[in-house]
Amino acid sequence: MVKTLRGHESERGAVCFSPNGRLLAAGGYSGIRVWKVGRWQVAQEIKLLADEDEVTGDFEDLDFDLGAIEALQFSPDSRRLYGGGDSRKIHVWDTKSWRKQEPVIGHEPMQNDPQPMAPPEGLPPGVEIGDFATCEVQFIQFPKKGRVFASGGRTHALRLWRWHKKKGWLTFKKFAEKAAPALPTERMDARFSADGTLLASAIGTGHIEIVDVKKGKVLHDIAANKSTFVTSVEFAPDGKSLYATGQGLKTWDVSTGELRASMSLPSTGRVVRRSRDGKHLAIACEDRVVRIYAVTSED
Amino acid sequence: MRLSPMPQVCAVFLAVALLNSLPFSSTTATADESKSEPANADFKLVAALDKHDEIVMTLDFHPKLSLLATASRDGQVRIWDTKK
User: Fold this and answer.
1) Which carries the bigger pLDDT value, residue B18 or residue A68?
2) pTM of this prediction?
3) What is the interface pTM, i.e. ipTM, of the complex?
4) Could you say which of A172, A184, B59, B61 is the most buried, measured as most Cβ atoms within 10 Å of its Cβ?
């Protein structure tokens, strides 16, 4: 291990490197912290709430509009940091001046949006029905290039945004949620293929959608298995295979939508990401362990 | 069941001949098998990073260097060298 950094507590959390490799950002309940890669000095602090031991009565630098951060992503040119979460908004910062960019991107439900899904029956104690009616931003994803991005929350499994010269970011496609996540704490995730033409999304019910980004059309709708669930997806570098975790680790064939391989995990997987060369997968599991797997077969 | 050497040789010969006559290679046969009972030979565990005190919520690989960042619920962000 290289370093341990102090970030923000979070139930879902967000961490990301900038595409140019110079910055690392992490977000949580009380804000966002950005470090310089290498020396690991704090480059910027964006505060929603002061840390308990830091409350001094000076609230000038606090951003009450921020909300708890669940999603963070740098723009492909690394010049902007996009963050979203409880506030139902996507905030954008300039990564040099750290000035917040206007306007803040709204992520509220619109008139013709689908109604929030009814919560599933038999909720465990402590889980409120109201938790299912919210529309937070749970992920923000950019392709390597191109002026689009994807975001998602609980009442919209997936939104695609396109840059408009005069109007800024506009939603050009919304994909209604197929079924409510089994639990509000469960994660939703989406990833672009390396060439940016495909987008795969997962919600915690075993449902995977593979979308043609240009056409905004669903190519495959994989209902993985009703008895299992999927929390996170990742494309292989060639875009031909899609890895999915949740219960186990599965490989799906992107062109046919068929299951190609499956392996059980010692514990439920929360998130899967691949190394840049695609030779390794890192999976964060519910048992606190991050497991690194070598991808041994490549078609 | 016991087979005399001759039919055994014949059986192998026949199998090879059959395989060669099929339009698809033998890898297709294993792929078909994996549909009903998927193979788990695609992945090999190479490391288990167990230094976090709480559940790791999310992680990200560095775009160029061999670094992995992991963030746990308690706010810890750990940086790992994936070459070691």
Assistant:
1) A68
2) 0.79
3) 0.85
4) B59
